[in-house]
Amino acid sequence: MHGGKAMAGNTENGSGRLGSRWRRALWGTAALLLLAPGVAMQFTEEVAWGPADFALFGAMLFAACGTYELAARVTGNTAYRAAAGVALAAAFILVWLNLAVGIIGSEENPASLMYGGVLAVGLMGALLARFQPQGMARALAGTALAQAVAAVIALIAGWGNALILTGLFVALWLTSAQLFRKAAREQRPAGAAP
After folding, report:
1. Domain extents for the chain?
2. Where, by residue number, does the polypeptide cross the bilayer (predicted)?
3. pTM for the full model?
């Protein structure tokens, strides 16, 4: 059965002092990110967040950090954890950029909803893979492809040119896929067929 601790091939289990330091760093960074706009508002009028903005950003940070914690608890495999971290960071940035300024035009441009489809591809792939590393590698490669397709559609439709930004996201999705492949190789018992 492939579940829970069976995803091992582990190098560390995340418990003890190292795990505790990583947890503090993760949640501490999230808290600092949440405080940053409040501090910026003291120095510039360019940043004008209301309670709803802070609540949304806080909920997004909580969801991303909580999801990463779940992934870290199911395996001590460093490559799997790194892959999950890269994928979650990419998803977080994609959502935040779309909400804050929009990737295609402004944040109110309905064409930006295509990027919700990109995330749906990744999420559906992860669910179908049951979060196993080899399937996750395929899911993230599919997510990279969906990201590229969304950019091509936007370019052909004349909605703007987000090729550089798309390249960044495709690189993040593919990096995550490669790390999941590494995790799958580490999980495989010695002498098993590739």
Report:
1. 12-74, 78-189
2. 54-71, 83-105, 111-129, 162-180
3. 0.81
